[in-house]
Give the backbone structure.
Amino acid sequence: MLIPSLIFITGSLISFSTGTSWGTMGILFPLAIPIAAAACQTMAPHLQESYLLIAVAAVFSGAVFGDHCSPFSDTTIVSSISCGVEPHDHIRTQIPFALITAAVAIIFGFLPAGLGISPFFLLFSGTVFLIFLPSVLNRFKKNKVKSNG
């Protein structure tokens, strides 16, 4: 089911637009939990609890992701001021890393978890992917430099 992924994306968009993760959680929890509870009614009881936990995780992580990338967030403004850079420059440096982790969260987390795949397997596979991603990107960058050079 796509509900955990949709909750994550919705939380990301709300938090990015408002600049507050706490406000996003306050908005999304009363909406997301009943939707997830209704969606998992036909599942086995042990899967229902797991599905609700995945929905809670989607609310938390979507809210924090959007807040991290938001130009209106207090943490973004304070971080950029303390580093002596403009907020948009700080965001520009953070977006690539945040988007990679958001994509991994959706691809290796919320999509398969919504289909009932074991969270332990997903945690392992997502971690392995993130460990090997820098070496793959570095190799790609070296090949690109050689072809341009």
Observations:
- Residues 119-148 form the longest helix (30 residues).
- The chain has a mean pLDDT of 91.
- The chain has six helices and no strands.
- The radius of gyration is 18 Å.
